[in-house]
């Protein structure tokens, strides 16, 4: 049996955001697509990753004025991706063996990782991809 690689499980359909996107727009995109992690791309280059956790933390962040009694959406309209993303995220290639990615995800407590080949973002792999694979092949 051939060793499974990232390309065998990764998601090829990508939603991306730019560093200047407001977090409210990110929330809408995440909810519409059902994603919890979005790659951040500028000039066709991966520059970061933004997660649903980043959005939750941004609402309670020092970026937001203390004492501001605002709705979450209003707060998220005032903060951009660049203010809370993880810059230069750890990536894997589409040829990386799945067991290595499983180790990286669990050791670092990552929910997902960008897949980059020759400097180009080609997909995302998440713990959900592993769970779907396990459920389908048990």
Overview features:
CBS-domain; alpha+beta; 5 strands; 3-stranded antiparallel beta sheet; 138 residues; 36% helix; two-stranded antiparallel sheet
Helix count, per DSSP? 6
| Element-by-element helix/strand order | HHEEHHEHEEH
Cα-based radius of gyration, to the nearest Å: 16 Å
Q: Tell me the strand order in the biggest sheet.
A: 1-2-3
- The average pLDDT is 88
Unreliable residue runs: none
The major pleated sheet works out as: 3 strands, antiparallel
Output the CATH class name.
Alpha Beta
In total, the number of strands is: 5
Form type: globular
What features would you describe in this structure?
With 138 residues, this protein is an alpha+beta fold. The chain has one domain (6-136): CBS-domain (Roll), CATH 3.10.580. It is 36% helix and 20% strand. The chain is built from six helices and five strands, in the order ααββααβαββα. The strands form two sheets. Strands 1-2-3 form a three-stranded antiparallel β-sheet. A two-stranded antiparallel sheet has the order 4-5. Strand 4 (112-117) and strand 5 (120-126) form a beta hairpin. The longest helix is centred in the first third of the chain and has 11 residues, at 23-33. The chain is globular, with a radius of gyration of 16 Å.
């Amino acid at each position: 049996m051939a060793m499974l690689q990232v390309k065998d499980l990764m998601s090829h359909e990508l939603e991306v955001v730019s560093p200047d996107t407001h977090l409210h727009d990110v929330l809408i995109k995440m909810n519409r697509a059902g994603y919890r992690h979005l790659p951040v791309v500028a000039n066709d280059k991966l520059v970061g990753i933004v997660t649903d956790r980043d959005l939750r933390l941004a609402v309670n962040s020092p970026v937001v004025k203390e004492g501001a009694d605002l709705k979450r959406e209003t707060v998220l309209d005032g903060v951009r991706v660049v203010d809370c993303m993880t810059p230069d995220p750890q990536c894997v290639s589409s040829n990386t063996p799945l067991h290595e990615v499983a180790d990286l995800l669990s050791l670092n407590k990552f929910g997902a990782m960008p897949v980059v080949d020759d400097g180009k973002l080609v997909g995302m792999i998440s713990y959900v991809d592993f769970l779907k694979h396990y459920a389908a092949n048990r």
